[in-house]
Design a protein that fits this description.
By secondary structure, the protein is of the alpha/beta class. The protein contains 22 helices and 21 strands. It is globular, with a radius of gyration of 26 Å.
Length: about 600
């Protein structure tokens, strides 16, 4: 039996085999009983084991795979076979690809993947399609294109996007790494940066556009926002860090685009937005995100009286607000599901106790950078927020003495981010865990006061944890002893104090571990890495960059001894290209660490 195959799916295989005799390879489709069974799988990676069972399973899993992510240049030579094998792909992600993205895109282009619906080429040096692709081929089914953080993006590229992808519904061209020191008088005719001219071309061509992210495009102005009014289906606009977008531009958009239900803006006075008709024309608004803006209590009261269908509200680094204004707004929107109040120094545990009474429907709360909030806020949210699942308290006052902890109830919180709370102790973490017993994701990175006792305690109290991050925890040498943790799949311990004894504990307790990040862990050695790879039979990815006591020879041994392993990150200088190709033929990509 393949050791990578999850035991939980044995029942599915048994059920599948009961109907196999009546099904041929040619008849296998996603909508037959067998296909419906396999669709219950949560992740594409679980298809890998099933595809090894028999030809029927192989054919079916190939037809069911919808997403492909390409990261390493070594896969370039096999891409044609992959595209042929997975003929029903609808999404290709190249955002983490480290080679020449043009080659990859050419394969997609030449093989006419006209059924492709989503393409992500973010973080690349340049856009992979230009005038050299002069075949006139048009991706008519592509409706999502992500191009954020491109090194080079300009009006010429936007024109090409408009001609190649005329049916786009979502477009992200945020934060290109362009020169932000040009003068406006030098912009005319400059096709190497994004200006109002490029946005106007997009707005005239992309008639189906529903969502666009223009954040970080420094040179666009209200003229771009006015041009987007041509997109009659437009619903979501993000213009963060766009210094020349004003309240007038947003007013024009709201007045002429009746379907807009989400706006994210930067550096704009909310009073001017309201005076300009935000409430009058934005009757469909469900999401308002304000960053680095001026917001008064009177403005929040006006929003409260507007009776908008608001379900998401964010205030990040804003000024002019008091707790009274927040209370009036939140009391008016009891159905709010997402709330972000970030970088507010005036927020205290007492204020959050009052505000939490209005947050009965909130699923996600972000309180990043609110330095006066302590563990008392977590207890208050646990008591009063009945459906809260995700809480972000990064860089707050956790660890400082809070108020009374006399009474609490078990929270439904599944995801808790507590990064960069430097004063949190083992005792404090245990108290938080006692309230958040249903945790599935926990991030306690950058904690200097935690030890293995604290981590062992939280894992004992919260056995449902699937992802644990202890990066930069120099005092954490191990996850401690205790019962098995079959649900723990991701453990990130980069630059922590983890050592070989800690790896031995991981091997004993975490049989279901799939991803392990040991980057910069100077306490681990070659033997420790070998041991954890031997014990964790489902391990798919391990990062060993900057592990000074781990020899390069370990890569070969763990690749060939751990059949489930698919990716190893290691200093590139210590491995030859021939070795990496050998590992790749064995099914594992070995890539360079940063």
């Amino acid at each position: 039996m393949n050791t990578e195959f999850p035991l939980v799916w044995v029942e599915i295989v048994v059920m599948a085999f009961t109907i196999l005799p009546s099904i041929t390879v040619e008849e296998i489709k996603a909508d037959n009983p067998l296909g419906l069974i396999f669709k219950q799988l949560d992740r594409d990676c679980e298809f890998n084991s099933l595809s090894l069972v028999c030809k029927r399973f192989y054919a079916l899993t190939n037809s069911l795979r919808r997403r492909l992510s390409v990261t390493d240049p070594i896969i370039t030579g096999t891409l044609p076979k992959l595209l042929e094998r997975f003929s029903n792909l609808v999404s290709v992600n190249l955002s983490n690809f480290r080679g020449d993205v043009t080659i990859i895109f050419s394969e997609i282009w030449n093989r006419c993947l006209l059924n492709l619906q989503e393409l992500d080429i973010s973080n690349q040096t340049r856009i992979p399609f230009d005038e050299s692709n002069d075949s006139g081929l048009v991706f008519k089914n592509l409706n999502v294109l992500k191009c954020k953080k491109l090194h080079v993006l300009g009006n010429s590229h936007l024109k090409r996007i408009a001609s190649c992808f005329p049916c786009l519904e979502e477009l992200d061209i945020s934060f290109p790494r362009a020169d932000a020191h040009l003068r406006f008088e030098d912009l005319e005719g400059n096709e190497s940066i994004v200006t109002d001219d490029g946005i106007e071309v997009l707005s005239l061509s992309l008639r189906k556009l529903r969502k666009i992210n223009l954040s970080g495009n420094y040179y666009i102005t209200d003229r771009s926002i006015a041009a987007l009014s041509n997109c009659l289906n437009l619903q979501n606009v993000e213009v963060l860090a766009c210094c020349f977008i004003t309240a007038n531009g947003i007013h024009h958009l709201m007045q002429n685009s009746a379907k807009v239900n989400s706006v994210s803006v930067f550096g704009i006075t909310l009073g001017k937005l309201i005076a300009g008709g935000l409430i009058s024309y934005g009757r469909a608004l469900q999401t308002i995100d304000l960053h680095c803006s001026t917001v008064s209590d009177e403005c929040l009261s006006s929003l409260a009286k507007a009776c908008l269908p608001l379900n998401r509200f964010s205030l990040v680094c804003c000024n002019g607000i008091t707790s009274n204004g927040l209370s009036s707004l939140l009391s008016a929107y009891p159905s709010l599901q997402y709330l972000a109040l970030e970088q507010f120094g005036f927020l205290t545990d007492e204020i959050m106790e009052v505000l939490s009474l209005h947050l009965r429907s909130v699923v996600t709360i972000k309180l990043t950078g609110c330095s006066r909030l302590t563990i008392s806020t977590i207890f208050a949210l646990a008591r009063n927020c009945d459906v809260l699942e995700e809480l972000d308290m990064e860089e707050t006052g956790l660890g400082r003495k809070g108020g009374s902890l006399d009474w609490y109830k078990i929270s439904k919180i599944k995801c808790l981010n507590m990064r960069r709370n430097f004063k949190v102790s083992d005792k404090c973490l245990a108290e938080i865990a006692s309230v958040c017993r249903k945790l599935e994701k926990l991030d306690v990175s950058s904690y200097s006061g935690l030890s293995k006792e604290g981590i062992a305690s939280v894992l004992q109290i919260c056995p449902e944890i699937r992802s644990l991050k202890i990066d930069h925890g120099l005092g954490i040498e191990s996850i401690g002893e205790g019962p098995e943790l079959p649900k723990l799949e991701v453990l990130s311990a980069a630059r922590s104090g983890l050592n070989d004894s800690g790896l031995a504990a991981i091997g004993i307790r975490c049989s279901g571990l799939m991803k392990l990040d040991l980057e910069g862990c100077n306490g681990v050695t070659t033997s420790g890495v070998e041991e954890v790879a031997k014990k964790c039979k489902r391990l798919r990815e391990i990062k060993l960059g900057m592990c000074t006591h781990v020899d390069a020879s370990v890569v070969e041994r763990i690749v060939f001894s751990c059949p489930s392993l698919r990716r190893v990150t290691f200093p590139n200088s210590k491995l030859t290209e021939n070795l990496k190709r050998l590992f790749f033929r064995h099914g594992c990509i070995v890539q360079e660490s940063h």
